[in-house]
Each structure stands twice: as structure tokens, then as C-alpha cells.
Specification:
The chain is mainly beta and about 425 residues long. About 15% of the residues lie in helices and about 40% in strands. Strand 25 and strand 26 (about 285-290) form a beta hairpin. The model is unreliable at about 350-370 and about 385-390 (pLDDT under 50).
Length: about 425
């Protein structure tokens, strides 16, 4: 069987028949299914065209399948906490996971946890890479989206933590979805929020280009490949098409249907949580809590096909079919190593030190010399060890002091969360 150019990858909250499945874009027929557990929203991703990764709903691990071996759950990656969102870089070198308010970045070739970023004040809701893997964007329940330069994060100075390139803080309620356009660092970025707005940004400058106000909360957002239209999924089941080529030039506007491309797709009976557009821009895919995935003809706004699920649709996207997806004898070129749960795996006794296969990607083959990052991590760990002894001392005094600090951090986090929930209730309370 020859692989179609594009396929649909989707999952639902129940996971009764499968965790996730692959459907034909043009017929809706089920091509492949992957069993075991169920994937949470914003957490299903393709790694290097060879693996499917999906964070287990409500659990602290990630399910992994070889993309050709659909009947067998290959591996479980244990994480430090429940994963709320997940993303793999398009070049297949890195995986991002949102765990509570922190971003975890793993290197695929080694399984090493390179860095833990803690710049959000509330839980993460979505993570996205740019198409060239040079940047990634994180959105959270703290109403902010942060733009990160991947090179700066990976090659960070050990004396201070990495900082985001831009902090996008114009939303007033939690971020629900993010979409990165094409052109890498020159791309445009769309953010959706419960504050009933979708905002369009320029990644290079961090400038807001457009803000569109709707009469319902927006749960999902995407752009067509040519970026003529912005598609926004509403909490009432509507899908709004916003023209980006309108003759009316205004940075802040309220959505209204008109004859210049601003239209509404009607058909879903519950919130639209997933949106995706085909490569040629003619088909729009939507996933909803009404337990259906629908295909829409963009020009006519008519639903041309529907796929029923057994639960609320948590993930749905149109993806290019990997060349080896339907080749039963094919195997991944690079096996996944064990993922470390600590930034310094050699000290903690996990990751590659515990028996994982340590492979380095590159045209020059595997280098036996210690890399710059490994030298940095080793020196940093030595420095921390010396600092801990000089400040806290050895033995029981150190343990008591660490325990006190951990308890203080937990208390401050609880106070911060309570204050946030109280302020959210005040903002959303009807007049």
C-alpha cells in the first residue's frame, strides 16, 4: 500500500478502541490504530517520522509507539509529574513537556534532560515549535505566551537561567491554544484564550499585529498554509474564519460575518478543541467535545465528512504521512534511549547511566569525547556541591534546611494558586 500524502491523527478521552488512530484524509477510513491508555489534550505528537508520543491522561508517563508497529505499546517514558502538553521538534532532536508550571526539554539522541524552565506562574496548557525548530512557544494558565530561542536555552550560561525572547502578555485569561506559521523566526504566531480573543503576533519582534474579539471563548486556533485566513474554534461549537486580507486595516476589531471572508462554520454541538488545515488549504479539520471529527470544504463552509469517536476528541491534526508509516518491515533508524528525570543523570542514577542506549545524531558519527554540554553539567554539579556544603554544612543540618525550604516553596505555590483562582472568579463573574 502506498502512503497517502496526508493523513489524520486523532485521539479521544475514552480510549476504548484505541489510544490514537490514523485516518485517510479523503475517505475517512481507519488506516492504523495504536492501543494502550488514552492521550490527554495537546499531547499527541510525531517524533522524527518514526515514533508516536502521547502523554497518558492523568498519569506521569508518556506512551511511545513505533509508527509501523501499531499493535504493540513499545515504551513508557516516566516523567517527574503529570504531562499537560507535549511537543517534538520538527528536526526530531528534542522533546518538550509541560509539567505543572515548568517546561522540560529532553535531547533525543541521549535521553538527557537538558533544562527545566520555570517562567510561568500557573500550569502549562500548550507547547509549539516553529517549523524550522529554531524557536518554541509556551502558553499557560497564567494568561501568558513565552517565545523561546532553542539555541539560547540549550547553550545557556550556567551562572543564570535562560530567559524567553519575548513575553506575550496581552491576554487577560488562560491561553487555550497556539499555532506557529511558516518561515521559522520570521513566522507569525496565533494565540487563543478564554478571554474571547485571538491575537496574531510577529515572532521576530514580539509585536502584536492583530486582536480579534469574539462573543464566546476560543478553544483552538490555526492558520491556512498561505495565511490568508485565521480559523478559531469556539466554546459553543462554532468555527470562525477571519480574513487576514481584509480591506479594513485595524489592529483591534470585533468579529462580524461579512462578504470579505469573515464567515462561520456551523455543525458541532460542543466546544471545538482541535483545528487543522490541509496543505492545499481546501480542507479544514475540526475535533470537538461532541465526540466527532469533521472535515469542512473551506470554500463552501459545508461539512463533507464526519468521523465518530467514543469520547471527547482530545487531539486531531492533518499531518504528512511518514514514508515508512505503512511499511511493516521498517524499523526506526535511531532507537529511543531512556529519558532522564533529572538534569544531571549521572548523579541521580537514571537516563543513559542506568542502561539507556546513548546515541548522538550527526553527519560525523558518534563522538567519544565529552561534549561541551556534558562538561558544563559536570562543572555545574561540582560547583553546586561545593556551594551546598559551604552554605548549609554537611549531615543532618543540611537535610533539615533543605526540608524547610521545600516546605516553604510548597506553601508559596499554594498561596499563588489560591490568589490566581480568586482573581479569575472575580474577572469571570457575571455582572
Amino acid at each position: 500500500m502506498s502512503a497517502p500524502m496526508e493523513v489524520v491523527l486523532s485521539s479521544d478521552s475514552e480510549g476504548q478502541l484505541w489510544n490514537c488512530a490514523v485516518f485517510d484524509l479523503h475517505t475517512g477510513s481507519n488506516l492504523l490504530s495504536y492501543r494502550g491508555g488514552n492521550s490527554s489534550a495537546q499531547s499527541l505528537t510525531i517524533l522524527n517520522g518514526e515514533y508516536i508520543l502521547g502523554a497518558q491522561l492523568g498519569k506521569n508517563f508518556i506512551n511511545v509507539w513505533e509508527i509501523q508497529r501499531k499493535d504493540q505499546l513499545q515504551q513508557k517514558i516516566v516523567c517527574p509529574g503529570i504531562v499537560s502538553c507535549l511537543a517534538a521538534s520538527p528536526d526530531g532532536r528534542y522533546v518538550l513537556a509541560g509539567i505543572a508550571e515548568a517546561i522540560y526539554l529532553w535531547e533525543i539522541s541521549t535521553g538527557n534532560l537538558l533544562v527545566v524552565l520555570s517562567r510561568h506562574y500557573q500550569d502549562l496548557s500548550c507547547l509549539r515549535f516553529t517549523d524550522d525548530s529554531s524557536h518554541f512557544v509556551s502558553g499557560g494558565k497564567d494568561n501568558r505566551a513565552l517565545v523561546w530561542n532553542l539555541a539560547s536555552v540549550v547553550q545557556m550560561d550556567s551562572s543564570r537561567g535562560p530567559e524567553p525572547r519575548h513575553v506575550l502578555s496581552r491576554h487577560s485569561l488562560p491561553i487555550t491554544d497556539i499555532h506557529c506559521g511558516l518561515m521559522g523566526p520570521q513566522a507569525r504566531l496565533a494565540t487563543a484564550s478564554l478571554d474571547q480573543t485571538v491575537k496574531l503576533w510577529e515572532i521576530s519582534s514580539g509585536e502584536m499585529l492583530l486582536s480579534v474579539l469574539f462573543d464566546v471563548s476560543i478553544m483552538s486556533v490555526t492558520l491556512d498554509p498561505c495565511e490568508y485566513f485565521l480559523f478559531c474554534g469556539g466554546s459553543d461549537g462554532s468555527i470562525f474564519q477571519v480574513s487576514l486580507c481584509s480591506t479594513a486595516v485595524s489592529r483591534d476589531k470585533t468579529f462580524q460575518s461579512d462578504g470579505e471572508g469573515n464567515q462561520v462554520f456551523k455543525g458541532h454541538g460542543n466546544k471545538v478543541t482541535c483545528l487543522s488545515v490541509s496543505m492545499d488549504g481546501t480542507l479544514l479539520l475540526s475535533g470537538s467535545h461532541d465526540e466527532t471529527v469533521r472535515f469542512w470544504d473551506v470554500q463552501s463552509k459545508q461539512c463533507v465528512r464526519s468521523i465518530n469517536h467514543n469520547g471527547q476528541v482530545t487531539n486531531a491534526a492533518i499531518i504528512p504521512a511518514p514514508a515508512n508509516m505503512f511499511l511493516a518491515d521498517s524499523r526506526p533508524a535511531v532507537p529511543l534511549p531512556l529519558f532522564s528525570r533529572h538534569p544531571n543523570p549521572s548523579e541521580q542514577g537514571d537516563g543513559a547511566a542506568a542502561g539507556g542506549v546513548c546515541l548522538r545524531l550527526g553527519t560525523n558519527g558518534q563522538d567519544s569525547e565529552e561534549t561541551y554540554l556534558e562538561k558544563r553539567e559536570h562543572l555545574h554539579s561540582l560547583m553546586c556541591a561545593v556551594t551546598d556544603k559551604s552554605v548549609f554544612g554537611d549531615g543532618e543540618n543540611s537535610k533539615v534546611r533543605v526540608s524547610e525550604l521545600e516546605e516553604e516553596v510548597r506553601t508559596l505555590k499554594k498561596i499563588n494558586k489560591d490568589l490566581y483562582e480568586f482573581s479569575t472568579q472575580l474577572l469571570t463573574k457575571p455582572n
